[in-house]
Amino acid sequence: MKWTELKITTASEAVEAISNIMMEVGASGVAIEDALDLTNFVEGDFGEMIDRENFEHITEGAIVMAYFPETTFLPELLPTIKEQISKLPEYGLAIGENKMEMTEVADDDWATAWKKYYHPVTISRYLTIVPNWEDYQAKNEQEKIIKLDPGMAFGTGTHPTTMVSLHALEIVLRGGETVLDVGTGSGVLSIASKHLGAEEVYAYDLDDVAVAAAQENMDLNPVAKDVKVSANDLLKGIEIEADVIVANILADIILRLIPDAFKLVKAGGKFIVSGIIADKKEEVLAALLAQGFKLDETLKQGDWYGIILSKPMPEE
């Protein structure tokens, strides 16, 4: 079987949004090469050292490579793809060069093309993300392995917004919590929540494509076998009270989510938001505080911010 590779040269901050667009229009797999992956790789105590001079990697921007089966007439989809990408700056996301290239590849070449970009990545002292085809063994009893199939989902969990969210979950989870994961994408935050002791986890995304991708990754991780994944528009219609709500989504979407999150998070509970660029940080924080949330901590990775907030107890 032959495949068509659609390669989009863009800016780092747009890779997750563009990957999502590709999957929604029918891509069978998405690969990402991002200059920030090397810049933001956690070294020292949290990972293995990299020989930066000899490590083959792009030095600026990012490339999103989407793979479509030969049965898909890609020229028919290109206007839709271009239109959706052109709207990303409206959400505060730079799209860089925004150059598109199409190449025909064979079946075996496709597998090699996207798998070569993904390797085990140590995110923190406790969490390591491993592509599902890699034979990786935990280095100690505390290390928790998250298996992902990046070809079926929306990245490998190494994007700065996801890393911020993972670190925030490590800070707030103590065990036994109910967690709502809004805009779950690959499901990595839900899987991490279970590893970190959450008792019940509910993962939501907007459409069935995202839900199917997340469920694929839940199935790769026995710890996440009871995570409940479903399609939903943010938290509309949800009535589950949560100890922790986490949302790694665009800043403008976070603004829509705030009232429902405040209603559903328990008093004393935590609201974690990520995916916020510097230009949007103050606007989002002001809206969160105006709703009644209390600022606990601000996290930063590269150009991206995450915020940990609390819902005050009644007497506060």
> What fold name stands as the CATH topology of the largest domain?
Rossmann fold
Amino-to-carboxy terminus distance: 63 Å
Biggest sheet overview: 7 strands, mixed
In the CATH hierarchy, what is the architecture of the largest domain at level 2?
3-Layer(aba) Sandwich
Strand content: 25-35%
Could you give me the name of the CATH homologous superfamily of the largest domain?
Vaccinia Virus protein VP39
Number of domains: 2
Number of helices: 9
Radius of gyration from the CA trace? Answer: 19 Å
Poorly predicted segments: 41-57
Number of strands: 14
Going across the biggest sheet, name each strand in turn: 10-9-8-11-12-14-13
Mean pLDDT equals 85
Look at the structure and give the CATH class of the largest domain.
Alpha Beta
From the spread of the alpha carbons, the general shape counts as: globular
- Which H/E pattern describes the elements? EHEHEHEHEEEHEHEHEEHEHEE
Keywords: Cytoplasm, Methyltransferase, Ribonucleoprotein, Ribosomal protein, S-adenosyl-L-methionine, Transferase
EC number: 2.1.1.-
Main location: cytoplasm
GO molecular function, one term: protein methyltransferase activity
Q: How are the elements arranged and paired?
A:
Blueprint: E1 2-10, H1 15-24, E2 29-34, H2 35-39, E3 62-69, H3 74-86, E4 99-106, H4 107-115, E5 121-122, E6 127-131, E7 144-148, H5 160-172, E8 178-182, H6 188-195, E9 200-205, H7 208-220, E10 228-231, E11 242-248, H8 251-264, E12 265-277, H9 278-291, E13 294-301, E14 304-310
Parallel strand pairs: 6-7, 8-9, 8-11, 9-10, 11-12
Antiparallel strand pairs: 1-3, 1-4, 2-3, 5-6, 12-14, 13-14
